[in-house]
Design goal:
By secondary structure, the chain is an alpha/beta fold. It contains four helices and three strands; from the N terminus they run βαβαβαα.
Length: 103
């Protein structure tokens, strides 16, 4: 395998994928590349990377609501609030109308 990508659906805490999952244990068992996505914030993602818990953190919903997520993280700017009612269906609303940071 090139990598393992673990996504926690419906988890409450960054890094917690549910009652039966232990990211630290997986890290000890899997020595290859690991990508996680468990409702991380910028701070919790940076902490997980620094602690060696993962090789990369994926962001789903934050990227939908923030097309400039990388720039927002670099500037420590606030994030747009996502509108889940517009995800994955309907028209352009929710995919093309989230505001970008001003220059």
């Amino acid at each position: 395998l090139a990598y393992v990508h673990i996504a926690g659906m419906g988890t409450e805490q960054p890094g917690a994928a549910g009652p039966f999952f232990d990211l630290n244990r997986l890290r000890r068992l899997w020595s290859g590349r690991l990508i996680v996505n468990f409702r991380y914030t910028q701070a919790s993602a940076e902490a997980a990377l620094a602690a060696g818990q993962t090789d990369a953190v994926a962001f789903g919903v934050p990227f939908i609501a923030n097309p400039d997520l990388v720039a927002r993280f670099a500037r420590h700017a606030p994030l747009n609030a996502p509108n889940p009612d517009t995800f994955y269906g309907g028209g352009a609303e929710g995919y093309t109308d989230y505001p970008f940071l001003p220059d």
